[in-house]
Amino acid sequence: MMVNEWQIKQQICDVGKRMYDHGFVAANDGNISFRLGDGRFLCTPTGVSKGFLKPADIATVDDKGKQLAGPKPRTSEILLHLEIYHEIPKINAVCHAHPPHATAFAVAGVDLPSGILPEVEIFIGQVPIAAYDTPGSKSLAETILPHLKNNANTIILANHGVVTCDKDLQQAYFHIETLDMYCNILLLSKQIGKIRSLPETKVRELLDIKEGMGISDPRLECLQTHETNPEACVLAGSDEFLRGFSTVAIPQHTPDADGHGHGNGIAGTPSQAGQPQPTPVSSGTFPAIVAGRNIPGDEGLGSSSDTARKRAMEDEIERLVQVITDKLVQASGGP
Ligand SMILES: [Zn+2]
Questions:
Q1: Which residues neighbour 48 within 8 Å (Cβ) at sequence distance 6 or greater?
Q2: How many angstroms separate the CA atoms of 126 and 260, rounded?
Q3: What percent of the chain has pLDDT over 70?
Q4: Fewer CB within 10 Å, N- or C-terminus of the chain?
Q5: Model confidence over 255-300: pLDDT tens digits?
Q6: Which of 144, 164, 192 is the last residue of a domain?
């Protein structure tokens, strides 16, 4: 592969500026790298804001992360980038940032739903959450391995941020934009009301488009292996966010064999994530567990005939949440 190193360094600076201007990184956060193809990699230096990078600042490292050139020490997160380059030969660019809306899901430990927005399905697909580990460590780099094996180009890092990768810098960076806008829209639409999922037939049409564009997706591979029984493949993603949240902590559980965990937060700590949301149970004056907007029998698009009944139920649940909050505040002697 012949690349003009100076041009790539300029592209890294451009991507850094866009990350900073979009608010995807604060201060000196985030890092960007590129595979030169001769066993060397370009990467951003540590301790420099991505908004003010100059091509001359960019460091060159070998495939173990050892610095070969550059006036400033390379990013401490290079091991995370190298893990991706080692695992997927077709990847040439990696970006890491802390975009606020996506990082909110990383902090809450709530899996992203899928089958909501067409472009998201096509360009980033189902986005997994990798378990937490200390930034800059070899163990953080290893947390993303199962997801890379599953062909993810966009991975949320629990309690940290996101890492994206693709064949060039622009594509890798665009995944951050797509992901953060998606998370922002999810959060906004939940405030307006109920989030409507696309029907499975329409998700399949999007996967066909994706296949035509040559973009891999674990769901496509599943459909190919199960040609005669496609119902064996789960096309819709986690419904955790759609169901809402519990005020009662549910113990953490481990990732599935395919690496798609369910709310992989910090090991050993309680998490709201990963368990089916119980329906409200009445115990005396208010239910012990408060459900979100999980309305039994609701099948997504087109189910608007009993909207009024559902709205009334949701309002009732909201009212109960308020009652409980007030009682908790009273009990704690606040506010
Ligand atoms: Zn970071």
A1: 28, 57, 72
A2: 9
A3: 78
A4: C
A5: 566 655 554 444 444 444 445 454 444 443 433 333 444 444 444 4
A6: 192
Q: How far is the CA of 69 from the centre of ligand 1 (A)?
A: 23
Distance in Å, CA 32 to ligand 1 centroid: 11
CATH number, domain containing residue 10: 3.40.225.10
Tokens of 127: 């986005």
Last residue of a domain, one of 160, 192, 224: 192
What distance lies between CA 250 and its chain's CA centroid?
A: 21
Closest C-alpha to 294, from 246, 334, 226: 246
Active site residue 200: no
Measured in angstroms, how far is the CA atom of residue 233 from the centroid of ligand 1?
33
- Measured in Å, residue 282 CA sits from the centre of ligand 1 at 43
Q: pTM surpassing 0.90? A: no
Q: 138 and 15 share a domain?
A: yes
Give residue 29 CA to ligand 1 midpoint distance, Å: 6
- Catalytic member of 77, 83, 121, 240: 77
pLDDT at 197 over 60: yes
Q: Residue 214 falls within a domain, yes or no?
A: no
CA distance 82 to 234: 31
User: How many structural domains compose the chain?
Assistant: 2
On whether residue 308 sits in a domain, the answer given is: yes
Sign of CA pseudo-dihedral 270, 272, 276, 280 = positive
